Amino acid sequence: MLYYKKDFHNNIDAPSVFSIHKRKKEKNDMANAKKYDDLTFTDDFMFCKVMTTNPELCHELLELILGKKVGAFTRLDQQKPIEMTADGKGIRFDVYSEDDSGIVYDCEMQTSKKDNLPKRTRYYQGMIDLNLLERGADYKELKKSYVIFICPFDQFQEGSHKYTFENQCKEIPELVLGDESTKIFLCAGGHADDVSDEMKDFLNWLTTGQTGNSQFVNKLENAVLKAKKHEEWKVEYMTLLMRDNEMMEKGRNDMLFSLVQDGTLSLEIAATKAEMPVEKFAKAMKEAGYFIRELP
């Protein structure tokens, strides 16, 4: 059953899910999207560009996180897409890399605190393994891998800066499974003395923008400033914003077209919700392959 409510903006009956208030909010969200010059390292676009065009910085960051040497990169990709089936849910890794010993690293920037982040690491790990198998690897040849989430907040609220998870036996804690998969949450906002001063400077920079005394953080800051002067990347960023906006518009319109076609919504109300003249909306609906139900 579809419930209706009186739309207080235009005093017309319409499905509440398509209120003009919501549509205007979505438009305002797009208008208020972050300008390229205002991007920071924690923004996906900037994070990916800085890391993949400065492999030495990406390499240094991984070594800082893991606390050990990392082999030379044999591949370093930004927004690497993995789509296992035509109708399955795909994934895009922020910064995906492999070193000369075959170890896989997926480094993700996560700015929104969500309860499902731990399960996302599980999904990401599964997609990495499936991708390796798709390339012809046997189970025994699955590579050692790290899924790393960088968070400008404390995901687990335990006061630590770094949370490392590996599979081990519950009954015998010292017995590790040995599947060579590791998930790491690197979190700002911790108070424990569990990481180096350089790591603390890095995490503090994510939330405050202050570089501190770390040479590495200063190099990252300079890389971000340099990236902001890159005109081609600025155009690319704006193009992506426009594409995302067009996809949102298409999704909303397709939903309205479908409701009109099945008789749930009148053509006039749908056109109002789309903020389009009725004639223009009807033409767009037909061009999209929908038909308009004739009134009895």
Please supply descriptive tags for the structure shown above:
296 residues, alpha/beta, two-stranded antiparallel sheet, globular, Rpn family recombination-promoting nuclease/putative transposase, RpnA
Note the topology.
Layout: E1 4-7, E2 12-15, H1 20-31, H2 44-53, H3 55-66, E3 73-82, E4 91-99, E5 104-109, H4 117-134, E6 145-151, E7 162-165, E8 181-187, H5 197-208, H6 215-227, H7 231-261, H8 267-273, H9 278-287
Parallel strand pairs: 5-6, 6-8
Antiparallel strand pairs: 1-2, 3-4, 4-5, 7-8
Estimate the helix proportion, in percent: 40-55%
Radius of gyration: 24 Å
Order of helices and strands: EEHHHEEEHEEEHHHHH
Strand order of the largest sheet: 3-4-5-6-8-7
Number of helices: 9
Number of strands: 8
Amino-to-carboxy terminus distance: 22 Å
- Average residue pLDDT: 83
How would you portray this structure in words?
With 296 residues, the protein is an alpha/beta fold. It contains 9 helices and 8 strands. The chain has 2 domains: 4-34 and 236-287, no CATH class; 40-227. 42% of the residues lie in helices and 17% in strands. The strands form 2 sheets. A 6-stranded mixed beta sheet has the order 3-4-5-6-8-7, sandwiched between helices. Strands 1-2 form a two-stranded antiparallel ribbon. Helix 7 runs antiparallel to helix 8 (267-273). The model is unreliable at 1-30 (pLDDT under 50). Pfam families: PDDEXK_2 (PF12784). This is Rpn family recombination-promoting nuclease/putative transposase.
